[in-house]
Design a protein that fits this description.
globular, 13 strands
Length: 206
C-alpha cells in the first residue's frame, strides 16, 4: 500500500515562519546564489511590524514541528505547508493547525525524514528556567488537535526548543547576562505528559 507522501515529489524547499504567524515554503532554486557584492533579493512581503522568526531548508517529506505558548506541539509534513512565491506573505498558521483559544505558535522545528526518532530529543526550556527532554519517538502519533509537549506552571512559557542527539552541549543565558553550560544528558529524559521536576531547573545550577 502506498502512502500519500509516496505520490508527492520530493523537493528541497525553504520554509519560513514569521512572528505574526505567516508560513510558506518556497523552492530552493528561487534563491539563486549571488556573487560577492550582490544586493540580495526580497524573500517575503511582510507587514511593517512583522519579521521572520524561523527559516529552514528541508525536504517536502520532512516534518515541521510547531510548539506553542501553551506547551502544545503540532506537526505537518513539509508538502502540507502551502507553497508561495518568493515575495508572497504566505498563509496564516491558524488556517493549518487546530489551535486552541488564545494559543499561538512560538517555535518551529524541522524533523528530517530519516531522523533516528529513538535517539533524538525535543529539548525544551521555559521562561522560568525549567528544561525538559522528550524522545522524538513520542511525537509519532500527533493528532490534528496537537499534544501537550510540556506542562507549564502558571505564568511560565516555552521560550526555546531544539532537536538534540542526547549528548549535545547546551548554553543557556539570562537577560541579566548570566549563563550556564552543561551537557544535555544532565537533564533527565521525561515522558511526553510529565512535567519537568524541580531538579530540572537550569538556573538553579548558575
Amino acid at each position: 500500500m502506498y502512502k500519500r507522501q509516496d505520490l508527492i515529489p520530493e523537493e528541497t524547499c525553504v520554509f519560513t515562519l514569521t512572528h505574526e504567524g505567516y508560513i510558506k515554503r518556497t523552492t530552493l532554486d528561487t534563491y539563486q546564489a549571488q556573487n560577492r557584492g550582490g544586493r540580495g533579493v526580497q524573500g517575503m512581503t511582510q507587514k511593517d511590524e512583522d519579521f521572520t522568526e524561523e527559516m529552514y531548508v528541508g525536504s517536502t517529506h520532512d516534518y515541521m514541528l510547531f510548539l506553542t505558548n501553551q506547551g502544545r506541539v503540532y506537526r505537518l509534513k513539509g508538502y502540507q505547508v502551502p507553497e508561495g512565491s518568493r515575495t508572497a506573505k504566505g498563509s496564516h498558521i491558524v488556517n493549518l493547525l487546530q489551535l486552541q483559544e488564545g494559543e499561538k505558535v512560538t517555535l518551529m522545528l524541522q524533523q528530517k525524514a530519516d531522523v533516528d526518532e529513538d535517539n533524538t530529543y525535543a529539548t525544551m526550556i521555559t521562561k522560568q528556567g525549567l528544561i525538559k527532554r522528550t524522545p522524538l519517538s513520542h511525537f509519532r502519533n500527533i493528532r490534528k488537535a496537537g499534544l501537550i509537549a510540556i506542562a507549564l506552571n502558571e505564568g511560565d512559557s516555552l521560550v526555546w526548543s531544539h532537536l538534540t542527539k542526547g549528548d549535545d552541549e547546551i548554553i543557556v543565558a539570562t537577560h541579566d547576562g548570566a549563563a550556564i553550560h552543561f551537557t544535555e544528558d544532565d537533564a533527565r529524559a521525561c515522558l511526553l505528559y510529565s512535567s519537568p521536576s524541580p531538579r530540572d531547573r537550569t538556573r538553579s545550577r548558575m
